[in-house]
Amino acid sequence: MPKGMIGQSEAFLASVRLIEKIGRWDAPVLIEGETGTGKELAARAIHYGGDRHAGPFIPVNCGAIPDSLIENELFGHKGGAYTDARRDQPGLVTLAQGGTLFLDEVDALSPKAQVTLLRFLQDRQYRQLGGSATHTADVRLITATNADLPALTCTGAFRLDLMYRIRLLHMRLPPLRARGGDVLLLADHILATLAARFGEARRLDPPTRAWLPRHAWPGNVRELENVITRGYMLADGANIHIPPPDLPDDDVVDRRWDDLPGRLFPPPQADPPRAARFREAKNAAMAAFERVYLASTLASAGGNVTHAARIAGKERRAFGKLLKKHGISAGPVPTG
Asked: Is the pTM above the cut of 0.90?
């Protein structure tokens, strides 16, 4: 079992088997999955299960790289390349030499950054800013996203040619709601980790263990860890009671993962308006998804915007703007 990955469900074990297969091939990999499903853990498992396991694993969040610094971050610079460049500095590609460069949130790259990455992937050659020598990179590229890249290519937000370059091998990690009994298995592991850290063994009471597997977990394992940790720290004794989130029935699941899209997006009308163009229909569907996801995540966080933003993997300000855009105020999801 890959280090740090825990589960027994068929959905989880299928992902582990695919990770083992992908690890044997030194080729670009795209890992898809919702926020909190463990994409970096999967990337590390691919790296350490392959021929580059002795080399470095260099992770970077693409959303944290300013557009103006993308080439400097990737390729580094020579001293004097610009005003504040007092000495040579290697880039991420150099640091990952002989190993793996992991680009998380690759969908966050700007058009300019996408061109830079595409140009590099075409021949694996690069030059440091201010330098004249051409270097050849010996790195494996693994990327990850929680977005629908094919859909983004349709709107022009992501380059189709770049998607094909990074998606030679790809896998989708299952959300926690698709993993059945793994929820309790993970909860017990989190409790064991907390007990080892703080020296107090505590356990979930039966009512809590009853609702945990039926919750939708929009924030996946990351949300589960937050909920269990908070319950552990606030418990009055050895038994931990965590009340279920105040969510409508639509957000408590005992269904197949494959059924979810039909629940988030209502079925199309039998005779949709002919004037509705593809992009207009898609924008309407995306807006509907955003409203459902934002309301569900906010309710899961008990109306706490900061916690909800953390579950969603977004900055608080950006999450707040989305709430304002859809007219959603802090509090439980309306049931009407």
From this structure: no
Nearest in space to 231 (alpha carbons), one of 197, 189, 187: 187
Tokens representing 4? 């740090």
Gap between the Cα atoms of 102 and 139, Å rounded: 10
Please tell me the distance from the alpha carbon of residue 148 to that of residue 55, in angstroms, as a whole number: 31
Which residue type does 146 have? N
Q: Grade residue 83 by pLDDT with cuts at 50, 70 and 90.
A: low
Looking at residue 140, what DSSP letter applies? E
Contacts (Cβ under 8 Å, ≥6 apart) of 158 = 107, 114, 149, 152
What are the tens digits of pLDDT across the range 19-29?
999 999 999 99
Beta strand pairing call for 203-204 and 169-172? unpaired
Sign of the Cα torsion 179, 185, 187, 193 reads negative
- For 6-19, the pLDDT digits (tens) are 999 999 999 999 99
Single out the residue of 172, 178, 175 nearest to residue 218, CA to CA.
Answer: 175
Going by C-alpha positions, the residue among 33, 66, 31, 34 that lies closest to residue 45 is: 31
Distance between CA atoms of residues 287 and 293, nearest Å: 10
Q: Which residue has the tokens 């299960």?
A: 49
Smallest CA-to-CA distance from 225 within 246, 242, 249, 238 is with 242
